[in-house]
Amino acid sequence: MRVVRIRSAVSSAYLVIDDKVILIDSGHAGQADRILAAAEKAGVDPQDISLLILTHGHGDHAGSSAELKSRLGLQVAVHAADADRLRRGENGPVRPRTLEGRLIAATVVGPYEPVEPDVVLSEEISLKRYGVDAQVLFTPGHTPGSLSVVVPEHGAIIGDLMMGGVLGGTFFGRRPRLHYFLEDESVVPASVAKVLQHAPS
Asked: What does the angle CA 73 – CA 71 – CA 90 come to, to the nearest 5 degrees?
């Protein structure tokens, strides 16, 4: 199994390559070409991607989903609690915790191209049915429908459950801290504990 990180200016997408391939997150709008090029560089035929699973419904993680679905015909999966955000192409409530968060919200929060999800998750699942030995965990806090994907021997892809460092990870990038935006900060400790319980050490 391999995990390939695809970086963009404001977020990352991930290819998980096993018997089949899944894509986790699609980045902000306009990232489809970058993602497809990264897949080809990793030796993956983009047509072999069996599923796009979104860690949550914000535009910096879901913004290229409609284009990828249109170009590849792939299925898009999201937690039920964030599905309407995807259908509307709207971030929903963005609740900054800090001054830094308020400044960022003013510049990065905006609508994105809507897309109808094909798989609406109402329970945690194994991704083996999509050809990848990984597990979906529900980890609310950043949004009600935030989820994480645990990949054996590679850790967990947690979306925006937590963040690293200051100024988007520019400084102290390996130092974990709460995200700029949390819709329900009270549930974050339980979500983090769940990831730590399930993720490989």
From this structure: 90
